[in-house]
Design brief:
Elements: H1 2-24, E1 53-60, E2 64-69, E3 75-80, E4 92-97, H2 103-117, E5 121-129, E6 133-139, E7 145-149, H3 155-161, E8 173-177, E9 180-187, H4 189-195, E10 209-212, E11 218-223, E12 233-235, E13 243-248, H5 255-262, E14 274-278, E15 281-285, H6 287-291, E16 307-310, E17 316-321, E18 327-330, H7 337-343, E19 357-359, E20 365-367, E21 379-382, H8 390-416
Parallel strand pairs: 6-10, 11-16, 17-21
Antiparallel strand pairs: 1-2, 1-5, 3-4, 6-7, 8-9, 8-10, 11-13, 12-13, 14-15, 14-16, 17-18, 19-20, 19-21
């Protein structure tokens, strides 16, 4: 019985361990970096660290593929044994310290050592797998914390994953390096987007702490913005269909600088009726002169807190007056004036067709012709003819005679008194 109890206890213990192992195997793991498509890597600019995997290729008197791993101590172990061919039966082992060295330096050193041990063999070393690194994003972001990336990612990749808030700065980001906590690396993602200079957006390193501050100076864009970026895109309160965004303001920025940086305006932007709200005052802005003609005199210098409003071009054409069904109708590109008269049901009998006018949004008034090309926001006014048929003249004459007779009758009554 004692032996049976010990056996049962052993089986229960084994079953418990297997259950724990099965539960542990269900833990979600970070996707390995080797699943990421590796772009071209400059061997002079990539520095190796623990977790990197190298591929050693030997050709010539022997053909051989060997995988090298960078261990936690920063070493790669070169080991050859059971080699077939010219060096059959030859065995050799060596270690190479690679931590912090460029891929080019390590390739040269490994090639030198292997060629010395195995003369007549061509040596090539390639980066086969990129290691994972841990970085930290804090500050004005929605999801601060730790992120697992690779040395091929830049500061912008980590910042975008943390989702900056609406008023976050892109021009004054700071990076603290683990290797030198007292060193602050300044990152300017706005300049990087404008110039493409990688010095403004450096590669990440293990243990980097990325600090995203709030923008010290900003303006708002409201209305027909081309495509609001994820970084800072918000919705106007009470107007879900209107696009707004907060844009960081750099010293000397003008309207054209902000528009170029944020992607420009949509084809439906009313360029001639844009304006700036500044301290409760409205400043008219002619975006047509700024965008199309590069007129620097119209390109106003912006101030902190300005709101740039870019309204939409009206996408309707109004027909009013002596038509059967007056109202607003959808604008169709290239359509003519007679098309909208037809949509309004045509003229009434009292329409004064010789005095029809088309009013443009800019205040210009044009004489109506059936083939006049209409623009969005136009108003077609069809006036009324006062006297048109013989009944109108008879009615008018009778009215005048009646009024005259009434006048003399009143005068006669007053004279009798």
């Amino acid at each position: 019985m004692k032996m049976l109890g010990i056996l049962l206890l052993f089986l229960v213990n084994q079953l418990g361990q297997s259950k724990l192992l099965s539960e542990a195997s269900e833990v979600t793991e970070v996707a390995p970096s080797e699943e990421m498509a590796i772009p071209y890597i400059d061997p002079h600019a990539y520095y190796l660290g623990p977790g990197d995997k190298l591929l050693l290729v030997l050709k010539g008197k022997m053909n051989f593929l060997y995988t090298l791993y960078v261990n936690p101590n920063g070493f790669c172990i070169l080991k050859f044994g059971s080699i077939h061919g010219t060096y059959s039966g030859y065995s050799w082992i060596d270690t190479v310290f690679v931590l912090g060295k460029s891929l080019y330096e390590v390739s040269q050193e490994i090639a030198h050592r292997v060629s010395k041990a195995l003369p007549g063999v061509d040596v090539s070393v390639f980066l086969h797998r990129v290691r994972n690194i841990r970085v930290y994003v804090i500050g004005d972001v929605k999801h601060p914390g730790e992120y697992i990336l690779t040395p091929l990612h830049r500061v912008s990749d980590a910042v975008n994953r943390a989702t900056p808030r609406e008023n976050a700065s892109k021009a004054n980001i700071k990076v603290l390096r683990k290797t030198n906590p007292n060193q602050e690396i300044k990152v300017d993602l706005l300049r990087y987007e404008e110039t493409g200079d990688p010095n403004y957006n450096p590669f990440l390193k293990e243990g980097d702490v990325i600090i995203v501050p709030q923008a010290e100076r900003w303006v708002k864009l409201w209305g027909e913005i081309c495509t609001p970026r994820t970084y800072g895109a918000v919705t106007a309160p009470g107007q879900p269909s209107v696009k707004t965004m907060i844009c960081e303001l750099l010293p000397g920025d003008r309207i054209s600088d902000i528009l170029e940086r944020e992607g420009g305006v949509t084809p439906w932007a009313d360029l001639e009726n844009a304006y700036i709200l500044r301290g409760g005052h409205k400043i008219n802005v002619d975006l047509r002169r700024i965008i199309l003609y590069r007129d620097t005199t119209a390109d106003i210098k912006l101030e902190h807190g300005d709101i740039i409003v870019i309204p939409s071009i009206p996408r309707k054409v109004c027909v009013i007056g002596e038509v059967k069904n007056p109202g607003s109708f959808d604008y169709i590109t290239g359509s003519r004036a007679e098309y909208y008269i037809g949509l309004a049901g045509g003229f009434t009998p009292r329409a004064d067709r010789g005095k029809i006018r088309v009013k443009r949004r800019n205040g210009e008034v044009l004489k109506y012709t059936p083939d006049l090309e209409v623009e969005p926001g136009d108003i077609i006014e069809v006036p009324r003819v006062l006297l048109k048929f013989w009944e109108d003249y008879v009615y008018l004459t009778a009215t005048v005679i009646g009024m005259t007779a009434t006048y003399f009758w009143i005068q006669e009554k007053l004279g009798q008194r």
